[in-house]
Amino acid sequence: MKQNEKQHAIELRKKGYSINEISKQISVSKSSVSYWVSDVELSMIAKQRIIKNQSIAREKSSEILRARRREREDIAQKSGETTVRRIKLNRPVEKIICAMIYWCEGNKNPRDGVSFTNSDPHLIITFLELLRANFLIDESKLRVCMHLHDYHDEAIQLKFWSKTTKIPKEQFTKTFQKPHTGMQKHPGYQGCIRIRYSDIVITRELLATGEMFMKKYGPIVQW
């Protein structure tokens, strides 16, 4: 009986069947199949079949991984949406969110006034909306400096950032040209901008609010 299975395994191997395929087809362990066919010389057609099947298997495996990743991303998305829907926003909460955004991305020296630099349009919109809603802002004092690479069209970026920030083009200062690094440009990257607002009082309140909120969860451990 084993001799018949061995012969069958050898014939299948010559046709380009994988060890796993042969094992399943003749119901014999993969270790036995591997031993039986170890000396079988594969024809070019057989090799091509094995390579093709391996490629198909890799693609199926990649698709399974992609599907699992999409599933995890969907779960995270729904969880995030639920959390945001449950938030009851009021002035103190909005101020804390604004302060924490500034604490992460803003200049920490109050004498410099509000100075916020970032490249993410969504984060910039959020910060400005919260700043405008919770502090008395003189819109004419807002200034923006674009930081662009040589592959950016300054006129296009000026239009984009003016519309994004709702700050007139006339209040944009001279563009800072980033040095060329030789790296490829990033599709969709709009450059980054620095928003400035000369008000020490607001800056101090932002920094103090952020600091107090973090202290609520405990002091810094001294090493």
Report what the structure shows.
With 223 residues, the protein is an alpha+beta fold. It folds into 2 domains: 2-63, no CATH class; 91-215, 60s Ribosomal Protein L30, Chain: A (2-Layer Sandwich). It contains 8 helices and 4 strands, in the order αααααβαβαββα. It has helices at residues 2-14, 19-26, 30-36, 44-86, 91-105, 121-134, 154-165, 200-215, and strands at 114-118, 143-148, 176-177, 192-197. Helix 7 (154-165) links the parallel strand 2 and strand 3. Helix 1 packs antiparallel against helix 2 (19-26). The radius of gyration is 31 Å and the shape is elongated. It starts with a helix and ends in an 8-residue tail after the last helix. The mean pLDDT is 90.
Strand and helix layout:
Elements: H1 2-14, H2 19-26, H3 30-36, H4 44-86, H5 91-105, E1 114-118, H6 121-134, E2 143-148, H7 154-165, E3 176-177, E4 192-197, H8 200-215
